Amino acid sequence: MSTDNHPASAGETDPAELQALRERVEDLEASLADLEDDGEKKMTIVATKGTLDMAYPPLILGSTAAAFGWDVVVFHTFWGLDILHEEKSRELKLSAVGNPSMPMPNAVAALPGMDAMATKMMEKKIDANGTATVEELIDLSLETGVDLQACQMTVELMEYDEDDFYDGVTTGVGAATALQHMAESDVQLLV
Description:
- The protein is of the alpha/beta class.
- It has a domain at 42-92 and 133-190: 3-Layer(aba) Sandwich (Hypothetical Protein Ychn, Chain: A).
- It has helices at residues 15-35, 52-67, 106-109, 114-129, 134-143, 152-157, 175-184, and strands at residues 42-47, 71-76, 147-151, 170-173, 187-190.
- Strands 4-3-2-1-5 form a five-stranded parallel beta sheet, sandwiched between helices.
- Strand 3 (147-151), helix 6 (152-157) and strand 4 (170-173) form a beta-alpha-beta unit.
């Protein structure tokens, strides 16, 4: 057996292999730095319902996320557009029918005047609890930088005018713009 050709012992490393490993580690670190989060999270909420109880979730979640420094868009479409409509948002109703959390059977909830009664009861509870109104939450959302968007197609469908919305609401937004923000978002919610 020849002693001229000894395999490298466990502790020795070929300098070329070591250099290749160092270069690979540098490449991986550079790739990781490119992928690292820039610190700003994005959230898109699509608001599709215009009832009193469904106005709260997008406004509360959106303003809270914005308070944490997130880039937040709330895209209002179809009945959700009523949340941004200055007059209609003050008259949002609570439906007693089909609401499993209502403490009454649907047969009773369907009687005339039950939606009005349920709405008044909820408004009293909101007031007694000191909970912010929808209007106050819209103001808070806009103050914290939430982009409250009105779907242009729905604006046209409902024959609303841009002046019908609260000051600061972004109008003229189409589905393509909303989809782009959704694609870039860390969190997407449909309310």
